Amino acid sequence: MGKSASPDAGFWERAAAWKAVLFIVAYLAFYLAVGQLIGRLFGGQINDDDVLADPSSIVFGIALAIAVGAIALLVFAARVGWLSAIFGPQPIRGRAWMWIAPALIVAAIVAHVIGIDWGRWSGGQIAALAFVGLCVGLAEEIATRGVAVKILRDAGHPEVFVAVGSSLLFALMHTVNIFSGMAATTVAVTVVYTFGFGMCMYLTMRVTGTIWAAIVLHALTDPTTILAAGGLDEAGAGQGGGETAMIATTLTVVLVVFALVAAFLVRGRVSPSARAEVPGA
Known about the structure:
By secondary structure, the protein is mainly alpha-helical. The chain has one domain (9-277). Helix content is 72%, strand content 0%. The chain has twelve helices and no strands. α2 (17-42) packs antiparallel against α6 (123-154). The chain starts with 6 loop residues before the first helix and ends with a helix.
């Protein structure tokens, strides 16, 4: 970036791994504060007993805070000049084995779709949850596979550090679910799963060459998981019942195991010259 860049950009240009942690913690604090504000302003629209009970409750109780977070992340990325770096082509190519990651995610999405009891949900609830998925896909991918990955790469770390570090930060983000009333055991299971999912999103981004693939798959995963499971707590801990539920659960276990193995297989490092060729680097 040139001399005309925002004063805030200077701090983030001097990359260091701890700044990725700082960024995620700051984003989580912002997200929780926005959630509290929305609760105060629109509490009457939110069903405290079952946030998924109606479309209005879903939008105001779940989606709106995430949507505001996504907008804030886009503003931040634009302010520091990182939009092109985040949404442009990846500076390092993926390997053929990495295609396993998006294949597992797609298989899980298909299993969820097949296993959904469509009669249980209204069209409005499905549309509202689809909006939740879009917001989650944008916000969480920009924060972790976008900003966090860029900071870790700019700090000169090898890709294995970038992959594992960004996935751990992604898992950290989901610990805040405990503040929404989610059971501690479910939060623990969710953290393990989200680390594996985060690794698969990183690999998807690498092998497809773009963060957009991760955003789309992420946006499809959350709503189909919730719809198939029948609730938020259930989404983290299991997938209801039936053969498709067994398949989805098995795929989840395979995904986590694959992610742990992949952590030992990721190779490479983005060279300073490659980073310099990326706009906004």
